[in-house]
């Protein structure tokens, strides 16, 4: 090891010495643009190299892990079946880590990247739904902190949540309940979210300054995969659900 360090030191010294006495400037340059199209012949040696890995990946990604009874559609509505599925799944899986979790707020509507079609659900479908390596984070918030979440949900026309319900009038939150009970500003609540939101992603100030923070090491995507697989094991399909957890009213 010392021999390699000595050789490296000599080479470095030589380079430094050389660079101190020589100076190069670009006299001219030229480039040629190669257009990638169907006219470019495939390199068979490259194909042979990656083909086994491609086949293995496709076999894993095309694996069926569950079924959806009908489409879970991505939309901008205050409450969506896709958002409810996402948040409910994270609440169930996060409670396996911390049973005392009250609320799941794992993503915003923009963080859900694709709808889930009716029929078979594959591993690839979940990767398309959640392509990011975001981790489940557990936060302890004051009642006032949860009120900030409710205020954000109201002002932003709803987001995927579970365990919390509210009514919205003129973008203000009313009748906020957690686990069926009115929000108590004097107590503390446990929240499951993502590291992205917990780290102020999407300017998420409602989760700032928690009383406690716990990193779980479990990816949101893995939790979704586990949830769908467990539902299948129990003989259940993923069924779209709209239950009035966020109700927007007029004046």
UniProtKB/TrEMBL annotation:
GO terms for biological process: nucleotide catabolic process. PROSITE patterns: PROKAR_LIPOPROTEIN. Pfam families: 5_nucleotid_C. GO terms for molecular function: hydrolase activity. Signal peptide: none annotated. Residues 64-204 form the 5'-Nucleotidase C-terminal domain. Gene3D superfamilies: 5'-Nucleotidase, C-terminal domain. This is 5'-Nucleotidase C-terminal domain-containing protein.
């Amino acid at each position: 090891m010392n021999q390699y360090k000595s050789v490296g030191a000599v080479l470095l010294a030589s380079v430094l010495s050389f660079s101190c006495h020589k100076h190069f400037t670009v006299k001219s340059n030229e480039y040629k643009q190669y257009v990638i199209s169907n006219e470019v012949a495939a390199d068979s040696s490259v194909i042979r190299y990656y083909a086994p890995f491609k086949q293995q990946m496709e076999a894993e990604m095309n694996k069926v892990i569950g079924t959806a009874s009908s489409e879970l559609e991505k939309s901008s509505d205050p409450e969506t079946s896709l958002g409810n599925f996402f948040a409910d799944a994270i609440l169930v899986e996060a409670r396996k880590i911390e049973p005392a979790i009250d609320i799941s707020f794992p993503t915003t509507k923009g963080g859900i990247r694709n709808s889930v079609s009716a029929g078979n659900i594959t591993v690839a479908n979940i990767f398309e739904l959640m392509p990011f390596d975001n981790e489940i984070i557990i936060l302890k918030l004051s009642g006032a902190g949860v009120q900030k979440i409710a205020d954000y949900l109201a002002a932003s026309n709803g987001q995927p949540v579970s365990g919390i319900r509210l009514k919205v009038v003129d973008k203000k939150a009313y009748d906020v309940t957690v686990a069926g009970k009115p929000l108590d500003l004097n107590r503390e609540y446990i929240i499951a979210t993502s590291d992205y939101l917990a780290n102020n992603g999407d300017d998420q100030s409602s989760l700032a300054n928690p009383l406690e923070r716990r990193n779980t090491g479990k990816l949101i995507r893995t939790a979704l995969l586990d949830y769908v697989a467990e539902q299948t094991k129990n003989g259940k399909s993923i069924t779209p659900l709209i239950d009035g957890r966020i109700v927007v009213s007029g004046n």
